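User: Sequence in, structure out. Go.
Assistant: Echoing your sequence, followed by the structure tokens.
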Amino acid sequence: MKTTRRFAAFAVPVSSLVALALAGGAQKPATNHTYLAFVGTYTTKTNSKGIYAFEFDTQSGRLTPRGVAAETRDPSWVVIHPSGKFVYAANEAGKQSAVTAFAVDPRTAKLTQLNQLPALGQDPCHLSIDKSGKYLFVANYSSGTVAVFPILADGKLGEHTSAVQDAGTPGPNQERQEAPHAHWAEASPDNRFLLVSDLGLDDILIFRFDPAKGTLAANVPSSARLAPGAGPRHAAFSPDGRFLYVVSELNSTVTAFTFDQAKGVLHDPQVVSTLPKEFKGRNDTAEIAVHSSGKWLFASNRGHDTIAVFSVDPATGKLQPAGELPTAGKEPRHFAIDPTGQFLLAENQNSNTIVVFRIDLGNGTLTEVSQVDGIPSPVSLAFLPSL
């Protein structure tokens, strides 16, 4: 059924997809223009079973459910190994928090658990893999800790090689910044540093990373400070690694830093709002991504329920606001850009939908092309590399 949805002052054609039964799905391998995607959810207080699989067609923008990939508790973040053979999930479950390794069957879109280890902290909310594919980084939100686990040849996780406690001066928000809260951890493009956004400290912490041993040591300087009460949540590097962009949950901003790749230093910050000036309601930003072209940056607003779009100056890395577009749902906790760079997929946590938008690389505009309903509490999405 074709309908028309209006974003701002222009009309957008929409093709609404009725969700298939999440427990089913045909068993077939992806073709050369399709990708498998795995979606993490919250199972506590929802009817979710765990991680769900989808097939994404990059010609039509159609997302097709393939059923439950794996039953596991509160897999709020999923990340896929560069080989495409393994998936890792953060089980965000308080004192029972864990990280789980799975093997991927691309034919059936099913995941088989390999092993599970304690997360070495409470409520892991972000995972990433170092550039060599040998280590998994875990950001534990409630305890404000970061752990490093080796990825063994069979995909299992080995005993941790490093675990650090975030340290610094908490921000002024007494409700949200009473202690350190690690929310994102990722290696620099050259794999020499690990950067950690800590929402509780208003800091981007910087560690030297030894990829031979999997160990962390404080850099000098050891952090970059954001505005008081900013609450840095996630961050994204520019494709060339020269700039780092940080989305701050508590003050709805993006901070653009220049990154000194030799010394691991962040400097020359520019701060821009993710919201229109006239908006006065509650808002918490969530996700951020830089397009592979380097021309556009996107950030999600929860409350305003939009994707904020910015153009990027390739020489300076500075941002220019280019508008905000509704996500056609509530609480876009996460979004992902597909491997071809043509589409942005927004997961609306509170409306149980994933909405697919086509990206106009000329002006950054997002045009809704499809959506899938009935996905319980979708909060992260990762694409399997092309087979």
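User: And one key feature?
Assistant: Confidence is low (pLDDT under 50) at residues 1-29.
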